[in-house]
Amino acid sequence: MKFTYRPSKGFVISILIILFIVFLSFVLDLYFYERQSSRRIEQEGKLVTKELTLNVETFLREIEDVANRAAEQISSGSKDDIVSELDRILKFEHEISNIGVLFVPHSYDESLRLYSPYILKEGNDTEILSFDSYYDYTTAAVPWFGESIKLEKNWTKPFYDEISREEFVYFTRRFTMAGGKNAEPSGILFIGVPLKDLKNKLSSLNLEHPGQPYIVTVDGLEITQSPHSSGGVQAIGPAADNADNREPGLLKVSDPNTGETIYRFVSPLESSDWIVVFEIVENEFLENYSLYRKILIGIVVSLAALVTAVALYNLKPLTSNYRSRSLFWFFMALFFLYMLGSIYICWIGLEYQDKSEKELNAIINKSLLEDFKLKYIKYSLEQREDPPVFIPTGIFVESINSQSSNRVNAKGIIWQKYYKGVHDDIARGISIPNAVDVSLSKFLEKTYDDYTLVEWTFNLNITSDFNYSRYPFGNENMWLQIKQQEFDKNIVLVPDLDSYRVSSTRYLPGLDKNIQIRDWEIQNSFFSYTFNSYNTNFGIENFIGQYSFPEIYFNIIIRPNILNVFISHFLPIGIAIFLIFAIFKTATGHYVVRPYATLFLALIFLQISLRSNLGANEIVYIEYYYFLTYFIMAGVSLNAVLVQNSSWELVHYKNNLIPKLFFWPFTGLAILILNTLVFYG
Fold first, then answer.
1. Element (H, E) at 525
2. 270, 286, 302: which is the final residue of a domain?
3. 212-217 and 274-281: which strand pairing?
4. 298 assigned to some structural domain
5. Rounded distance between C-alpha atoms, residue 602 and residue 635, angstroms
6. pTM, two decimal places
7. Max Cα-Cα span within the chain
8. 597/581 Cα distance (integer angstroms)
9. Mean pLDDT computed over 513-522
10. Dist CA 59 CA 61 (whole Å)
11. Which of 3-7, 224-228, 557-561 has the highest mean pLDDT?
12. What CATH number is attached to the domain comprising 429?
């Protein structure tokens, strides 16, 4: 049999043109999709940053105006009237909670070294204290005094006040009393702004997309906490220099831990040396992961098809001047091409998975929470139910221990805040219905000015019904459902976002930073709502939660440890395929049956072990590789039978050369098609 390769030139060129057009169309789709997404991120980010800046600037200027008026009144008034004037200002100005003055030593009275009346607001009452009873403010204990006395006005760095046990930034206004010596400054007037108030100003906007606002100084010092555990904001200064009052600056950075692209929008504040920063993670902003994933996979497949067509067209010189070694490496190159494409498709499927319903309904900032509350209040009124009562609820998971593939033991703390006048007639108690072997123990009940904090420790087991159809390249959701014990009242639990440093899902709010789950990697954590309905009232009269009742879930998104799966399954399958080829190439006839039978038994036991460990009800993604290996083994065995018993020239050509040459490219192409079918849908 003479083997020749004579493709029609016109036909091949037509195929090449079609494949190139398909490839180019996918590339253009990617270009326009990323361009549109980038524009949307920039437009949204700049708009939000402008609103944030205006919001904070207005708030700061209100504080400054109060301080300026107070300083002028003190400067022109009598020393004996300072305390009464400060007290009057504090009672009249509702936006401030404290005010005070710090006199330069001996400037109030030569016989008195320090004088520092400090007034705190508590509800409708005020409390007059002496700041120097707690601090010698001329020392390093109060670093902002020495800095502020040199400046006409100043916004200080964060300072933890032991008097009110809260962290503040202070606006200071220098003043000089009438009749002062040589018109030297007599001291500073200061108004403290709790950092929680600044944080509330940042979170009060309606942020429809994931993003994290915070404030830093020009040298990178955090005023309100950034999402970064340490550092990470030093590069903001140059971007702020390029910003102006009309347009925020933009800095694109790469997250050192995840490699994700972060859009960092910055806008300096006119009233201070602070900078408002708003961060958007590119991947979190993308809403249509499915489309983006399909475009990327389309590029990979069309490029592989185009390269294959070009390679086969150029195969003619090799076949016309037959060289077995050259042909082998040519087809091996195709195999590696297909494998690289398959690996990239797996990565695409892993990184750009469709978001689950709970992820789409995640409560990641206060604006989304307020929007949810308003919608449910409206719904309750439409259903003629009692107005809902919202109870802030938080969770902190301290440890998670894996007991099986879909069962874990979790330990941690759950807390609730019961506000005075709102939750007085509500029983303190929760349940976690989706957990088993639950141990809840109340260990703290502490009353503050506005609310009572109740905390429970929990120790429980969670059994999750995971979907392993894409294992190990699929995320899974391990969740806790939290319910209030009273079911005859319209009580809705809401996430206590104020108690978390950041609420962005990627920074794992509610989880101890040292948590590790055997064979799994934690990706995200967040709160979400599901509107559940039940076909029974559980025997409870006036049961509220029977129809479309919002129930809170704490979700932990995890994915398998791919390295472990690679070592335990992909590596044995790869070695088995290599052994199949080695036996195929060296043995003939019935000599291939026994080693193939041994391989088959080893693989089938490994597959059974996989299904047993996972407890899967569906076909697991890895199993497709087992099925492919069985198919290859059957095909090679059939080939051995044909070589032994058939006179077909194609089988005997050059000592069974054709099946041996096509073994690896067929395997690679099958894997590429498999991954395309699994991850494209």
1. strand 520-532
2. 286
3. antiparallel
4. no
5. 18
6. 0.80
7. 121
8. 14
9. 88
10. 6
11. 557-561
12. 2.70.170.10
